Amino acid sequence: MKSGNDVFVAGSQFPDKMDFSQGSLFGYIEDLQELTIIERPVRRSLKTPEEIERLTVDEELNDIERAVYLLSSGQDIQGTSVVANLPVLMRQNPAETLRRVLPKIREVLHVAGVEMQLTAAVSFLTVLQDESVSIHTYSHSFLHIILQNLEHRDAGVSNAWLETLLAVIEALPKETIRHEILNPLVSKAQISQTLQSRLVSCKIMGKLAYKFEAHIIKREILPLVKSLCQDVEYEVRTCMCRQLEHIAQGIGTELTKTVVLPELVELARDEGSSVRLAAFETLVNLLDMFDADDRSQTVLPLVKSFCEKSFKADESILVSLSFHLGKLCNGLYGIFTPEQHLRFLEFYKKLSTLGLQQENGHNDNQLQLQTLEQEKKYISVRKNCAYNFPAMIVFVDPKNFHLELYSIFFCLCHDPEVPVRYTMAISFYEVAKLLNSGVYTIHKELVTLLQDESLEVLDALVGHLPEILELMTTNGGENSGSESKLLSIPDLIPALTTAEQRAATSLKWRTHEKLLQKYACLPHIISSDQIYYRFLHRMLTIILTNNVLPVQKAAARTLCVYLRYNRKQEQRHEVIQKLIEQLGQGKSYWNRLRFLDTCEFIMELFSKSFFCKYFFLPVLELTHDPVANVRMKLCYLLPKVKSTLKIPSDKHLLQQLELCIRKLLCQEKDKDVLTIVKRTVLELDRMDISLDAEQLEKEKQQSEGRSTNVNDKIFEKKRRDNKTSSVLAKSMTLSVSGSSSGTSAGKEDKKSKLVRSQSFSTQALHPKYSNIDKCPNKSSATGYTSSVSGMGKSCMLSFTDDTFRTRSTGNSGNATFPSSSSLTTSRNSFNSADQKNNGNKESQSRKMSIKNRKSNS
């Protein structure tokens, strides 16, 4: 902020020869005024030492004592803060707050300003909603304060306290309401009271109608209601008229017919336009409570009178009439004669074009003198007509839409004002549902709204675009077959592309994102070739060129949907190749990040085998990416990547995954990435890989066949060995070597599993061992691979679904396959049997060798 010297220096930069003409002088004065405005907030924010001293409070005071002190001797802003903090004090220490703080607030409110009054009204309501005290305690402590401030001279403050009181009435018991509110209300509603007091009484009586029985309302409240309906002030009559709806619901149908309806009829003829408007809207809201006779003899003549006067002498009711016209027409439908039905339909048509044509009774000179206020009123009327259009379809029957309402529908969709077209776009889906099989008649308007110059209209239409297009294609008349989807909605594709381009060039990226998300429905609407040539490549371009992340993600997901429904292999392979080359291997790291997003959508929409076939290895290649953010995002994605694998068909991919994790652990230099890698390793270690049951069953059958052949050969050999001892000795030597090699291989396998498990846990839990020097070298990795591949095929194929687990751990990142108990038992029994046979054969060979030595000697 500039000081006074700074201002002088800035002023010294003016030219030496100053121009004292009137224009220049005013310019200098404006510059000085801007400088004073800049400095003014600083001067106001500064506090003198005396002010700071007055604002200082002893820190040793507790919350209750501090609140009492600030309310007693603090400034207004401090007292307001205490009042705002009242709900917190009530939750912490309700007894002391009620005993010491609340009496002080009551005293302060007598002389408090508007800000503190409004704050107190909100705080009292919050205490009630929090249920910090019982309703009996609340009514005893807070209700009197609320009632005292109802008639505050400021209308805003009075309304705030009234809202609090109306909320309190819902929770108070009937006896408390009778003694504390209803009895004083009789005197407050008298004509001798102030205008504000009578207005408050009207709103309270509307609320009390829900709390008491009909006979109590009839005896104690209805006389006051009649008196206030005849009040000399039009504000009171208007307010009471709007409360008649609540009173009618409280007293029932019979009393409404005999008491409320005559009052409404009289108020509908009131001299005040606001009173007539309130009476009309109350009549519309109470239509369900009137029987057919009341509607035909009382309500309908009043409505006809309103419609006739709305164009001539009482345009104030025009907006409200247009808003409620749909409800009125359907509510009175049963009592309309054909002539009346046609009259109300023509009245709606006239309102729909109000301000666009010279048919509202004014001459040309009056039309030229239309004020801006009238134009706004006419726009509101046409907007309300657009809002009521679905109701009017029901009124005329959807079968008669094309004859009776299509011209109005066309005008409203082409209205020059955006709010009207926006409302039509919102209600377009409702119109399409009502037309059902006749929906093909409005396809041109759909194209028109898609090409609308206002993005607000487009945004409103896109919300239900998939449902609208589905209705268009399924109920599109004769051309709704699957082979001729496009014929049912002419010019749809150009309109969709135009809408997307307009959204893309605007600054409203949320509309663009929403549009791209909804375009995922197009495979159900148009052909695969049209999507491929007109939309799919556009989605890829958006991913590559757009700068808004949500838009890129929406385009990526929609592209994956298009790819999912594309059955032509050439087109599929082309798109997959472009995704890998332009995104996965792109020069920009941003594109490589979007490739990972796209892969996530592919895992969501496609099968596991599809992802493993085309995207598994390109994803793993990003472990060597030079940008840390890409490697970090890849680490977050690795658990999902691993979940796509099936064993044993994807065993080679699992080995590649483990190798990549091991390289990340050994070679990663970024601390953040390394932390995420270690966390991911632990998560991968807890994951289970799904088994390919069919593949396992085939390999099991092959294994069983091989094992049967081996056993037959062994038994045949044993039978032959009994004939000659020389052949027996040779077979014993081979069996001993075979069994020892199998036993050593099994021990080596168990030992390698134990070493890998220990190294994994050490690497994952202790970062200090994560440097490259501690990592296993290539020879160890090669040894592990060979040991895994050297395991017997029968052992590998005898794993079951319950015992087969793949665990990614620590440095090596390799999978360990713990065998089942049945496998271990069978293996041990087989080895033990071999050892016994071999032992017998060895003993026989030793005896033979001893005999030969003796004979030689």
Automatic annotation (TrEMBL):
Compositionally biased region (Basic and acidic residues): 713-723
Positions with biased composition (Polar residues): 777-787, 806-818, 833-842
TM region positions: none
Region (Disordered) location: 696-762, 768-787, 805-857
Alphabetical UniProt keywords: Coiled coil, Cytoplasm, Phosphoprotein, Repeat
Keyword Phosphoprotein recorded: yes
Residue ranges of HEAT repeats: 221-258, 260-298
Protein name: Serine/threonine-protein phosphatase 4 regulatory subunit 4
Any one Gene Ontology molecular-function term assigned to this protein's record: protein phosphatase regulator activity
Entry function: Putative regulatory subunit of serine/threonine-protein phosphatase 4.
Source organism superkingdom: Eukaryota
SUPFAM superfamilies: ARM repeat
Comp. bias intervals (Low complexity): 731-744, 819-832
Assembly mode: Serine/threonine-protein phosphatase 4 (PP4) occurs in different assemblies of the catalytic and one or more regulatory subunits. Component of the PP4 complex PPP4C-PPP4R4.
Biased composition (Basic residues): 848-857
Keyword Coiled coil: yes
Species this protein is from: Anser cygnoides
Compartments where located: Cytoplasm
Any one GO cellular component localisation term in the record: cytosol
